[in-house]
Design goal:
Number of helices: 5
Strand order of the largest sheet: 5-4-3-6-7-8-9
Bound molecules: S-adenosyl-L-homocysteine
Strand content: 25-35%
Radius of gyration: 17 Å
Amino acid sequence: MTADRTGIGMTSARTRARMVERLREQGIADEVVLAAMTAVPRHIFVDEALAIRAYDDVPLPIGHGQTISQPWVVARMSELARNGRDLGDVLEIGTGCGYQSAVLAQFARHVYSVERIGALVAKARRHLTSLKAKNVSLKHGDGSHDLGEDLAVDAIVVTAAATHVPSALLRYLAPGGRMVLPLAQAGEERGVQRLTVIDVTPAGLREQTLDTVRFVPLLSGLA
Ligand code: SAH
């Protein structure tokens, strides 16, 4: 098993470079995000049996009925969160295996990530520790409600599908801050959402509806 890992490790830089070329072709243009996607070894975040598919542009199972988002989705949400600026602190809802957290941690000052499934918090912590990612804090919590934290972040990235904007989180956005989330649309097919961006502007909240995506649902309560 160790030999397999090493084998993948030896080819992964090349495989990852190909993944990043595909992301460019798919319209990801933010060089900072592309550099982060080049730097983070995605195969570390999936089970060994799936590592061979880690760089394909597909979501993969991570246990507990959850998935690691496909690379394009991670890149697109990162690009929208960054919005071409240097990011201070970022709050992520839905840590899963920790891959998006690791990507965000490449260019944010600090990433606070919340996950409702305790076993996934432990799994993500193992992955992030193995990468020596020091600017990520994980919390076992329910991000569909107020977190009871004292935070002022530049961006909130929600990586589970919401049926309405989790407004309890908006208070964590600093002025000029931005929330990125998959939001279900009235009348659209079940399981399909639109990436939605909410900006805190001097004139109030401004909402934009963008790409069609498929995320696992944002649920309440801890597991
Ligand atoms: N960010 C991950 C995607 C994980 S999938 C990646 O990099 O691939 C979405 C995750 O959101 C799941 O692990 C799920 O358990 C979690 N989730 C769903 N509802 C939640 C909630 N209310 N609070 C925190 N996490 C939640």
